[in-house]
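Tokens help. Our protein:
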Amino acid sequence: MISKNTIKRLNSLSQKKYRAKENLFLVEGDKMVSELAGSDIVVKELYITSDFEFRDTKSNFHAEQIHSIERSDLKKISQLKTPQNSLAVCQILSQKELPDKLDEPLSVYSDGIQDPGNLGTIIRLCDWFGIKQLFCSKDTVDLYSPKVIQASMGSFMRLNVYETDLKALKELTEVSDTTIYGAFMDGANIYTESLAGKSILVVGNEGNGIREASKLLIDKKISIPNFSAGNSKAESLNVSMATAILCSEFKRR
């Protein structure tokens, strides 16, 4: 049986302040937990029911502690409405330093995205499109929020995420021959605009878009045209949906 103190400690990791204090975060879902075996992430504790099956062999999964628990106990420590058979307590990765130069053909910058589902989906999109770098403003939702991790579907393990302001990134683009594009409602049509060889795509906050200070650092404004007929149409796209469309067009070129 799992202790009350352990339940309290693990539940506290749903909050950013306790994740920062303990330097720990949670990973749930049997597929994602199994994928930890092939990542650089250190698993401090693993809680599994008798129904959990290691994707490869148990010997390939390195966890400092492995606890076999009942499903009723897993429900007490899970952040999911319908828990599967496993929960891993992992060590937060050290903050990455910005590279000396930008060599990737396309990267994404989150300018204050607040919804964890959106950030997690954008992480998954980057993984799908082979985008290896995601840059985030300091006020972007915490990467290690359980909802971000869950929405990423394991892609957070395969992405380099950097916390930085756009000004520092702008200085880096100037020595890397990289163009900064911003997603706007009134930008140039993405389907007809010529696109640079190396690019950073800036996507903004769900309610306010790209902040005023960031607008001054953007080289080109782009947008996705609205093809609706008549006056009755959607005002905008969800930020993760827009990111998918824009990344697809960049990669198609």
